[in-house]
Amino acid sequence: MGTSQREPGRRDAIVEAAYQCVADKGLYGLRMRDVGAAAGVNIATVHYHLTSKSDLIRAVVEHGHDVFLRHAAPPEHPDPARRVVTHLDRVFALLEDDPRLAHVLAEVALHARRDPVVAQTVIQAEERWRLALERMMAPLPRRQSGPIARLVILAVKGACLPPADPAGLRAARRELTRLVELRLDTRSATPAPETPAPPQRTPAP
């Protein structure tokens, strides 16, 4: 086993090359030999880090969702609506700035219908995202935050599907933001504090 196979960052370079390959050619065009050439390694090194095409696909999906969540992290803000809206702003800005991400997410979502390995990886990644969205909406109970989180995920997945439409992406962003703000408006969701009853006076003897 060559020392070059164990060099730090080698696996990351392979996954990044595979990510670019999926963005350019789709999952059907993903070839381990092509990934190795793009990463500057031989195919034995690719197999050392990711032993099968299924492992490579799983790594690409996880990499895409990691990029997604890392760049779209919400701020620490006391208002749940502001946390989610900021997250959405960053999500859609990322999709516009990095078209590769939308291509990869759309490709794996479509491929998941036919490949159980991809489907399981997508389900796990989306579950992490759903839980992150629900945490952003705390202290809203899960029976309310869960449907909103699923709506956000479905809307963003739909926005990633081809053909690319920047104007449509921006329109979807505005409408989704408006809906989330309506549902998470803390001013209407939080009951007004009760006015304490005036103390009763003891009647004079």
Automatic annotation (TrEMBL):
Biased composition (Pro residues): 193-205
Pfam families found in the cross-reference section: TetR_N
InterPro entries attached to this UniProt entry: Homeodomain-like_sf, HTH-type_TetR-like_transc_reg, HTH_TetR, Tet_transcr_reg_TetR-rel_C_sf
Signal sequence bounds: none
Domain HTH tetR-type stretches: 8-68
Keyword annotations of the record: DNA-binding, Transcription, Transcription regulation
Regions recorded as binding DNA: 31-50
Ranges where the record places region Disordered: 184-205
Xref: PANTHER family: HTH-TYPE TRANSCRIPTIONAL REGULATOR BETI, HTH-TYPE TRANSCRIPTIONAL REGULATOR RUTR
Protein name, per record: HTH tetR-type domain-containing protein
Organism of provenance: Dactylosporangium salmoneum
